[in-house]
Amino acid sequence: MNPDENNFNKQANFTVSVDNVIFSVDTQANRLLVLLVKNFQQLSENIWGLPETFVRQGESLQTASQRILAEKIWVKNLYLEQLYTFDQVNTDLSDLSENSQVNSIHLAVSYFALVRYEDTRLMADQVNSIAWYDLQKLPNLVSGHQPILAYGYQRLHNKLEYSPVAFDVLPELFTLGELYQFYTIVLGENFSDYSNFRSRLLKLGFLRDTHIKVSRGAGRPASLYRFDAIAFDQLKDKPLVFI
After folding, report:
1. Cα–Cα–Cα angle for 34, 39, 43, nearest 5°?
2. Which fold does the domain 166-233 belong to in CATH?
3. pLDDT tens per residue, range 63-114
């Protein structure tokens, strides 16, 4: 048999991990945050990474993702959404056959979530440190984690455009100014002016004015609004652009 054909017929060796991209918005400090961990063995290198774990025998990807997060963070009603699968091929030349190669493929299955900052509690242990980092001020990252994080931010950006994900982490009652601030923190200050943003959202009909006024800082009292999930359900199959 031709050596090339022999190599072609060999099955690749796989390792599989899950890597979690967990975002949160700190409205008090106007920061978009991402959850990062660091192994104490890497303290001198000051390299941080996404919460990750290898998948154990008999464990589903979702279970592995939830397990590693349960060891790092406490949060109410954590919803994880599968993001993307990244792969990296490593060629092992140590095989006994002179002309053969063993392909070792590492699959990193990423998950994504947005959590309410005020409801989280971080849980460091004897092995790892854990912290929220401003997306604009990231430390050195583990090799391969930057593209996962970038893909996760793009998913967050897209979901804010067409889904009510923001209302999962905002307080039950909010002003339109607070909602605009949330979008501005994630998308940047130039994504839309306030007047257009306010007009588009109110026309969609899933924000309910409670007719309760609050004074927060300078300016006139503002109305508190509530997200109406039933009204949004009527629109969920239609192409929507909030911004």
Report:
1. 100
2. Arc Repressor Mutant, subunit A (1.10.10)
3. 998 888 888 888 877 778 899 888 865 444 333 344 444 457 888 899 999 9
